[in-house]
Amino acid sequence: MGELQLNGLRKVFGDGGNAIVAVNDLDLTIDDGEFLVLVGPSGCGKSTTLRCIAGLESVSDGEILLDGDPIARKRPRDRDMAMVFQNYALYPHMTVRKNLGYGLKIMTDLSKSAIDERVEETAEMLEISELLDKKPKALSGGQQQRVALGRAIIREPEVFLMDEPLSNLDAKLRTTMRTEIQRLQSDLGVTTVYVTHDQTEAMTMGDRIAVLDGGELQQVGTPLECYHAPANRFVAGFIGSPSMNFLNVERRDRTLLHEAFSYELPGDFLPESEAAGDEMVLGVRPEHIELTDGDERNAVRVRVDVVEPMGEHSYVYFRLGGETYTASVSGDVILRQGDEVSVNFPVDRIHLFDARTGAAVKNSAVAERTVGADADRSRTLSSS
Q1: What is the mean predicted confidence (pLDDT) over 375-383?
Q2: What pTM was computed for the model?
């Protein structure tokens, strides 16, 4: 078992007027065998949360439970967890073999032959057997990362903790190692908490993702839930690349009024409880904006500012009401700076947020279909 619970977790640095609340009243449950990603911008509290779980930071308030057992006051070595750091933290004077086996040597009573056997098995799993007699300085970044993972795996802990382990690798190697970590975690079935600021890693790796901002949990859900049904404007803007476009509008009956256009809504788009005249924010993702011939309902005429060809697709930047927005279009579409085009925000793809609180008022109609299917898939996988 490896169920991890955070109940009202709070971490404050300093005191009095200089106090900084790094993590504030965090409630989170990570199921046994789950791969959970903590994601958010720099300074959001994700690494501090991980260090509190590991015991590298003391907890100001709240509880941390592992399989129901309170561990917040236990020493790091007594928590049955293994951590993989951003800088690998390998012993430079030891060979790979000794780096892998050192933790077992000092923390268990296993015999030398048993440790050697475990080292060989772990090295074979990670495909680094030929590196066992080399020292870290002779290894590439990817090889050092595999050794760091091996030091965690070899201990057979209840929980893996990973603090931005891929950030020092180049883009191509990061993609390869993402796949490797996912495969290993799935094969081993060990509860894993993975910290990253890279929302692409979060979307592709996690069973669920927990989005943090300012030390507070904004949303926890599957990657598709957070993408299609964001709880608030922050999550909508953070998850997805390029970021969601946000346009300030005012609702009057069935119409959203923007300084550069008006947008007609279907009669049943919003519940009657949403009063007319509300200040709202219309959100639409770049990949959901459509180029049209201008005859469609709600089509808006814009002038192209910048085009960034990316190969399979291009990013097209245009201005409305003095603000710049982004559309992602097929790479086959040829546009140039100064071209005038019509764009449409499909009604089943738009989101509405409360302009004051940022809370989601209405998510896209696509969310209802996609998120439901994703939840069904998650339940099927968890029961298999």
Answers
A1: 48
A2: 0.89
